[in-house]
Amino acid sequence: MDRTAGENLVTYELRGAVAVIGLNRPEKRNAISDRVVEALASALERAAAEARAGVIRGQGAHFCAGLDLGEHVEKPLIDAIAGSRRWHRVFDMIERGTIPFVSALQGAVVGGGFELAASTHIRVADASAFFGMPEGQRGIFVGGGGSVRIARLIGAARMGDMMLTGRTVTAEKMEAWGGINYVTPEGQSLEKAIELAEATAGNAQMSNYAILNALPRIQDMSSEDGLFMESIMSALTSVTPEAEERLRAFLEKRAKKVMAPRDV
Prior knowledge:
- By secondary structure, this protein is an alpha/beta fold.
- The chain has 2 domains: 200 residues, 2-enoyl-CoA Hydratase, Chain A, domain 1 (Alpha-Beta Complex); 47 residues, Lyase 2-enoyl-coa Hydratase, Chain  A, domain 2, CATH 1.10.12.10.
- Helix content is 50%, strand content 17%.
- The protein has a 7-stranded mixed beta sheet, sandwiched between helices. A 3-stranded mixed beta sheet has the order 6-8-9.
Protein backbone atom coordinates (compact mmCIF):
# COMPACT_ATOMS: atom_id res chain seq x y z
CA MET A 1 0.00 0.00 0.00
CA ASP A 2 1.34 3.42 -0.93
CA ARG A 3 -0.21 6.62 0.36
CA THR A 4 0.88 10.21 0.84
CA ALA A 5 0.42 12.80 3.55
CA GLY A 6 0.74 16.56 3.80
CA GLU A 7 0.25 17.46 0.10
CA ASN A 8 2.81 14.86 -0.96
CA LEU A 9 5.51 16.53 1.14
CA VAL A 10 5.96 13.21 2.94
CA THR A 11 5.30 9.76 1.50
CA TYR A 12 4.09 6.84 3.56
CA GLU A 13 4.23 3.15 2.74
CA LEU A 14 3.50 0.20 5.03
CA ARG A 15 5.71 -2.79 4.21
CA GLY A 16 4.51 -5.54 6.50
CA ALA A 17 5.33 -4.37 10.03
CA VAL A 18 7.57 -1.51 8.83
CA ALA A 19 6.37 2.00 7.98
CA VAL A 20 8.59 3.67 5.36
CA ILE A 21 8.34 7.46 5.60
CA GLY A 22 9.93 9.57 2.88
CA LEU A 23 10.75 13.26 2.70
CA ASN A 24 9.37 14.22 -0.72
CA ARG A 25 10.81 17.51 -1.96
CA PRO A 26 13.59 16.15 -4.19
CA GLU A 27 13.71 19.36 -6.24
CA LYS A 28 14.78 21.17 -3.04
CA ARG A 29 17.00 18.34 -1.80
CA ASN A 30 14.22 17.59 0.71
CA ALA A 31 14.71 20.83 2.65
CA ILE A 32 12.52 20.92 5.75
CA SER A 33 9.82 23.59 5.99
CA ASP A 34 7.13 24.05 8.63
CA ARG A 35 4.68 22.16 6.44
CA VAL A 36 7.13 19.28 6.07
CA VAL A 37 7.46 19.10 9.86
CA GLU A 38 3.67 18.86 10.24
CA ALA A 39 3.40 16.24 7.49
CA LEU A 40 6.16 14.27 9.18
CA ALA A 41 4.33 14.50 12.51
CA SER A 42 1.18 13.04 10.92
CA ALA A 43 3.15 10.21 9.34
CA LEU A 44 4.86 9.42 12.66
CA GLU A 45 1.53 9.26 14.48
CA ARG A 46 0.22 6.85 11.88
CA ALA A 47 3.35 4.70 12.07
CA ALA A 48 3.08 4.45 15.85
CA ALA A 49 -0.50 3.24 15.48
CA GLU A 50 -0.01 0.56 12.82
CA ALA A 51 3.67 -0.43 12.53
CA ARG A 52 6.24 -2.17 14.74
CA ALA A 53 9.20 -0.22 13.32
CA GLY A 54 9.86 2.63 10.90
CA VAL A 55 12.30 3.82 8.27
CA ILE A 56 12.88 7.46 7.37
CA ARG A 57 14.30 8.16 3.93
CA GLY A 58 14.69 10.99 1.45
CA GLN A 59 13.18 10.71 -2.02
CA GLY A 60 15.61 11.39 -4.85
CA ALA A 61 19.37 11.79 -4.72
CA HIS A 62 19.59 13.33 -1.25
CA PHE A 63 18.33 12.54 2.22
CA CYS A 64 17.87 16.14 3.36
CA ALA A 65 19.76 19.40 2.85
CA GLY A 66 18.38 20.86 6.08
CA LEU A 67 16.25 23.85 6.95
CA ASP A 68 14.32 25.64 4.21
CA LEU A 69 16.21 28.93 4.56
CA GLY A 70 13.79 30.82 2.32
CA GLU A 71 11.07 30.28 4.91
CA HIS A 72 13.30 30.79 7.94
CA VAL A 73 14.71 34.19 6.93
CA GLU A 74 11.26 35.79 7.05
CA LYS A 75 10.31 34.61 10.52
CA PRO A 76 9.94 37.00 13.47
CA LEU A 77 12.11 36.08 16.46
CA ILE A 78 9.33 34.53 18.55
CA ASP A 79 8.14 32.45 15.59
CA ALA A 80 11.67 31.16 15.03
CA ILE A 81 11.80 30.01 18.66
CA ALA A 82 8.38 28.37 18.36
CA GLY A 83 9.45 26.67 15.13
CA SER A 84 12.56 25.23 16.76
CA ARG A 85 10.53 23.92 19.68
CA ARG A 86 8.11 22.27 17.26
CA TRP A 87 11.02 20.49 15.56
CA HIS A 88 12.09 19.29 19.01
CA ARG A 89 8.65 17.85 19.78
CA VAL A 90 8.29 16.13 16.42
CA PHE A 91 11.81 14.67 16.46
CA ASP A 92 11.12 13.45 20.01
CA MET A 93 8.26 11.42 18.51
CA ILE A 94 11.01 9.50 16.71
CA GLU A 95 13.70 9.29 19.38
CA ARG A 96 11.46 8.65 22.37
CA GLY A 97 8.40 7.17 20.77
CA THR A 98 7.03 3.64 20.89
CA ILE A 99 8.67 2.05 17.83
CA PRO A 100 12.30 2.00 16.64
CA PHE A 101 13.28 4.05 13.59
CA VAL A 102 16.11 3.49 11.12
CA SER A 103 17.21 6.25 8.74
CA ALA A 104 18.37 5.50 5.18
CA LEU A 105 20.84 8.19 4.14
CA GLN A 106 22.23 9.17 0.75
CA GLY A 107 23.63 12.33 -0.78
CA ALA A 108 23.31 15.43 1.38
CA VAL A 109 22.73 14.86 5.10
CA VAL A 110 23.18 18.48 6.06
CA GLY A 111 22.10 20.73 8.91
CA GLY A 112 18.55 19.89 9.87
CA GLY A 113 18.79 16.72 7.81
CA PHE A 114 21.58 15.50 10.06
CA GLU A 115 19.49 16.56 13.08
CA LEU A 116 16.60 14.45 11.79
CA ALA A 117 18.88 11.47 11.18
CA ALA A 118 20.34 11.84 14.68
CA SER A 119 16.86 11.42 16.17
CA THR A 120 16.58 7.92 14.66
CA HIS A 121 17.89 4.94 16.56
CA ILE A 122 19.96 3.37 13.78
CA ARG A 123 21.52 5.30 10.89
CA VAL A 124 22.47 3.64 7.59
CA ALA A 125 24.36 5.69 4.99
CA ASP A 126 25.38 4.69 1.52
CA ALA A 127 28.73 5.62 0.01
CA SER A 128 27.29 8.77 -1.62
CA ALA A 129 26.29 10.33 1.71
CA PHE A 130 28.09 13.39 3.01
CA PHE A 131 27.49 15.22 6.28
CA GLY A 132 27.68 18.95 6.91
CA MET A 133 26.72 21.54 9.51
CA PRO A 134 27.04 24.90 7.70
CA GLU A 135 25.27 26.99 10.34
CA GLY A 136 28.31 29.19 10.98
CA GLN A 137 28.44 30.22 7.32
CA ARG A 138 24.69 30.91 7.29
CA GLY A 139 24.73 33.14 10.38
CA ILE A 140 22.47 30.81 12.35
CA PHE A 141 22.66 28.04 14.96
CA VAL A 142 21.22 24.54 15.03
CA GLY A 143 17.57 24.45 16.04
CA GLY A 144 16.39 20.89 15.52
CA GLY A 145 18.07 19.24 18.48
CA GLY A 146 21.54 18.87 16.98
CA SER A 147 23.37 20.53 19.86
CA VAL A 148 22.14 17.64 22.02
CA ARG A 149 21.78 14.65 19.68
CA ILE A 150 24.63 15.16 17.21
CA ALA A 151 27.03 16.41 19.89
CA ARG A 152 26.35 13.25 21.91
CA LEU A 153 27.00 11.05 18.89
CA ILE A 154 30.25 12.58 17.62
CA GLY A 155 31.29 14.95 20.42
CA ALA A 156 30.89 18.71 20.73
CA ALA A 157 34.42 19.38 19.44
CA ARG A 158 33.84 17.58 16.14
CA MET A 159 30.41 19.13 15.73
CA GLY A 160 31.85 22.57 16.49
CA ASP A 161 34.56 22.01 13.86
CA MET A 162 31.90 21.24 11.24
CA MET A 163 29.81 24.27 12.21
CA LEU A 164 32.73 26.70 12.38
CA THR A 165 34.57 25.67 9.24
CA GLY A 166 31.83 24.27 7.01
CA ARG A 167 33.70 20.97 6.84
CA THR A 168 31.86 18.11 5.15
CA VAL A 169 32.47 14.52 6.18
CA THR A 170 32.14 11.29 4.22
CA ALA A 171 30.01 8.37 5.32
CA GLU A 172 33.12 6.35 6.11
CA LYS A 173 34.53 9.10 8.33
CA MET A 174 31.16 9.66 10.03
CA GLU A 175 30.94 5.97 10.84
CA ALA A 176 34.40 6.15 12.45
CA TRP A 177 33.22 9.16 14.47
CA GLY A 178 30.13 7.30 15.71
CA GLY A 179 27.56 9.40 13.88
CA ILE A 180 26.20 6.51 11.82
CA ASN A 181 25.98 2.77 12.37
CA TYR A 182 26.33 1.22 8.91
CA VAL A 183 27.79 2.14 5.52
CA THR A 184 26.54 0.42 2.36
CA PRO A 185 27.49 0.61 -1.29
CA GLU A 186 25.81 3.47 -3.14
CA GLY A 187 22.08 2.96 -3.62
CA GLN A 188 21.72 0.26 -0.97
CA SER A 189 21.01 2.20 2.22
CA LEU A 190 17.22 1.87 1.96
CA GLU A 191 17.36 -1.89 1.48
CA LYS A 192 19.65 -2.25 4.49
CA ALA A 193 17.54 0.11 6.60
CA ILE A 194 14.39 -1.87 5.89
CA GLU A 195 16.21 -5.12 6.72
CA LEU A 196 17.29 -3.70 10.09
CA ALA A 197 13.85 -2.24 10.80
CA GLU A 198 12.28 -5.64 10.13
CA ALA A 199 14.71 -7.17 12.61
CA THR A 200 13.75 -4.67 15.32
CA ALA A 201 10.06 -5.17 14.54
CA GLY A 202 10.46 -8.78 15.60
CA ASN A 203 11.54 -7.84 19.12
CA ALA A 204 9.24 -7.83 22.12
CA GLN A 205 7.41 -4.49 22.19
CA MET A 206 8.19 -3.80 25.85
CA SER A 207 11.89 -4.48 25.27
CA ASN A 208 11.92 -2.04 22.35
CA TYR A 209 10.10 0.56 24.42
CA ALA A 210 12.63 0.21 27.25
CA ILE A 211 15.57 0.48 24.85
CA LEU A 212 14.14 3.62 23.21
CA ASN A 213 13.03 5.38 26.37
CA ALA A 214 15.02 4.08 29.34
CA LEU A 215 18.47 3.69 27.80
CA PRO A 216 18.99 7.35 26.78
CA ARG A 217 17.63 8.56 30.13
CA ILE A 218 19.94 6.23 32.04
CA GLN A 219 22.83 7.82 30.15
CA ASP A 220 21.83 11.17 31.68
CA MET A 221 21.64 9.82 35.24
CA SER A 222 24.25 9.26 37.90
CA SER A 223 25.66 5.73 37.99
CA GLU A 224 23.61 4.79 41.06
CA ASP A 225 20.36 6.22 39.68
CA GLY A 226 21.02 4.55 36.34
CA LEU A 227 21.55 1.15 37.94
CA PHE A 228 18.33 1.52 39.91
CA MET A 229 16.40 2.41 36.74
CA GLU A 230 18.00 -0.57 34.99
CA SER A 231 16.71 -2.92 37.71
CA ILE A 232 13.18 -1.53 37.42
CA MET A 233 13.13 -1.83 33.62
CA SER A 234 14.68 -5.29 33.73
CA ALA A 235 11.93 -6.49 36.04
CA LEU A 236 9.14 -4.81 34.07
CA THR A 237 10.18 -6.26 30.72
CA SER A 238 10.71 -9.78 32.05
CA VAL A 239 7.18 -10.23 33.43
CA THR A 240 5.26 -9.46 30.24
CA PRO A 241 3.53 -12.45 28.59
CA GLU A 242 5.64 -11.93 25.46
CA ALA A 243 8.88 -12.09 27.47
CA GLU A 244 7.74 -15.19 29.33
CA GLU A 245 6.99 -16.98 26.05
CA ARG A 246 10.33 -15.94 24.51
CA LEU A 247 12.28 -17.06 27.57
CA ARG A 248 10.44 -20.36 27.57
CA ALA A 249 11.26 -20.82 23.88
CA PHE A 250 14.93 -20.22 24.64
CA LEU A 251 14.96 -22.74 27.48
CA GLU A 252 13.22 -25.30 25.28
CA LYS A 253 15.76 -24.64 22.49
CA ARG A 254 13.11 -23.26 20.14
CA ALA A 255 14.70 -19.80 19.89
CA LYS A 256 17.41 -18.64 17.51
CA LYS A 257 20.92 -18.82 18.88
CA VAL A 258 23.19 -15.79 19.08
CA MET A 259 25.70 -16.32 16.28
CA ALA A 260 29.12 -14.87 15.56
CA PRO A 261 28.88 -11.85 13.21
CA ARG A 262 29.13 -12.49 9.48
CA ASP A 263 28.85 -8.92 8.26
CA VAL A 264 28.86 -5.39 9.71
